[in-house]
Amino acid sequence: MDVTEIDRPETHAAERKWTVAEVEALFALPFPELMYRAQTVHRQFHRVDAVQLSTLLSIKTGGCPEDCGYCPQSKRHAGAVASEALVPVAEVLRAARAARDQGATRFCMGAAWRGPKDRDLEPVLAMVREVKTLGLETCATLGLLRPDQALKLKEAGLDYYNHNLDTAPDFYGEVISTRQYQDRLDTIEAVREVGLKVCCGGIVGMGESRRQRAALLAELANLKPYPESVPINHLVRVPGTPLAEQAPLDPFEFVRSIAVARITMPRALVRLSAGRQELGEAVQALCFLAGANSMFQGDKLLTTGNPQISEDQALLGKLGLTAEVM
Ligand code: SF4
């Protein structure tokens, strides 16, 4: 395909449907051309000097019955982390207050469940109500959700629900066997139906091909509407998980993934998520140039490491970026 035929920013209608071939053609653009296009779209829809900060707290760690190949919280893997009880509401509130004081505008609560049992949901609803009183946006990631559970979360004041597609439909079975792609789409639909905003992205570097990375981004971009937040994770190769020995992804391929996410989902917050420690400052700077405008702040992301807050603040300072204020 001639690069001049590939989508231009001004043609981004809400109803645009992307084929995998079109998205793959974006990936294949000369790097400067891809960055130029991503930056052009970025400037059309976002401030160029601002990065939104979110903080993620694990409210229920470990013991998960699912078998996601990248995840140390699965009790099926040799390297599984210990299972812990649900964190008390007061502790969640303390963490949320600290996150707000350090510049976060969104507080995400994650639980290692297949999906919440009804008795689990009640304390989470209390957490959402309490965190909202701090003036933070709230997000939860609790696994598969029924429509009635989504409604309860919405009524408690939840703003976003996170549920990632993880990877391309035809690679998904290589990574997870205990739930299906359609289960994930059903949860996203249930969340949308009740008026919650959607945070949905994936993980790159799990051994998928470029075409499969393109297929993941096409799936996300073709959701109607596409997610408001798109976390792009870089695989963290955690010892004792099935993907521990996965060959590392070329860093430029990660940057390309960010740029393609920006071009195909122009209004979304594109969030640098897991794996930032491995990327280093220079690659993260390229990601911001490619259109990333959000990141997780805090020294831990559920169970894996994340840069120290002081390191992030130093990096933002060096790049002349500021934390976006709601
Ligand atoms: S990613 Fe979530 S659902 Fe999968 S094993 Fe980990 S905690 Fe469980």
CATH superfamily: Aldolase class I
Outline, from the CA principal axes?
A: globular
Fraction in helix: 40-55%
Tally of DSSP β-strands: 12
- Give the mean pLDDT: 92
Low-pLDDT stretches? 1-11
The secondary structure category is alpha/beta
Q: What is the CA-CA span between the terminal residues?
A: 41 Å
The CATH C-level name is Alpha Beta
**Spatial extent as radius of gyration:** 19 Å
SSE order, one letter for each helix or strand: HHEHEHEHEHHEEHEHEHEEEHE
What does the largest sheet look like?
A: 10 strands, parallel
What is the name of the CATH architecture? Alpha-Beta Barrel
Number of helices: 11
Please explain how this structure is put together:
This protein is globular. Strand 10 (300-301) and strand 11 (304-305) form a beta hairpin. It has 11 helices and 12 strands. Strands 1, 2, 3, 4, 5, 6, 7, 8, 9 and 12 form a 10-stranded parallel beta sheet that branches. Strands 10-11 form a two-stranded antiparallel sheet. Mean pLDDT is 92; it is low at 1-11. The protein has a single domain (18-323), classed as TIM Barrel, CATH 3.20.20. The chain has 326 residues and is of the alpha/beta class. Helix content is 40%, strand content 15%. The chain binds iron/sulfur cluster. Iron/sulfur cluster (SF4) binds at residues 64, 66, 68, 71, 73-74, 112, 143.
